[in-house]
Amino acid sequence: MWGLAELLGARARLKSAPKGDGRPVMILPGLVNTDRSNLLLQRFLRRLGYRVEGWGLGRNLGARAIGREGEVLMQRIAALHRQTGEPVTLIGISLGGIMARIAAHRAPNSVREVITISSPYAGSARATNVWRSFEFFTGDRIDDDHVRAQAALAAKPLPVPETAIWSRSDGLVSGEICHAPDARAIEVRSSHIGVQWRAEVMLAVAGILAGR
């Protein structure tokens, strides 16, 4: 509620965000969330001039949503790439950011850049307060071999530009594992829940997309 109230007070700043160039952008939701959780960010970026899509895969339940090897998500990204003739910018919130990083490794020609928001990709899953929820909702265990392999892939430097937006006051995941030392990172002040609704985060995303 505080974040939504903050948005109302930041309308002038949001209106002054740099305009977009029409490139395709796909936003990936966090654990158990759907595209509805990102509607404010979608609308903001559309108003700036980007072609923004949700991931269209329903609730984010890990492999149950994207396929064991992420093949369903890869098909969605490839389809948007074909439709627009341009590689896709991926913006992922929390678990969605980890998935975006894996997708960029597996299909770098279809991905223009990756922006993660509060995504704990750079450390142990146990450095979060949600790893048990991950296991419950996805049916995967963090110690499973394929989950470990995917986590290791997500942690590797990307073959495309990457930016991590993170917060020390996250509360659910350690902010220190939401960015890598050798990659671009932007620190914000926010809790984990609703981070994508914060004006500071939305303006940071707009700046990244504009090359700032």
TrEMBL record:
Residues 86-134 form the AB hydrolase-1 domain. InterPro entries: AB_hydrolase_1, AB_hydrolase_fold. Pfam families: Abhydrolase_1 (PF00561). The keyword Phosphoprotein does not apply. GO terms for molecular function: hydrolase activity. SUPFAM superfamilies: alpha/beta-Hydrolases (SSF53474). This is Alpha/beta hydrolase. It comes from Sphingomonas populi.
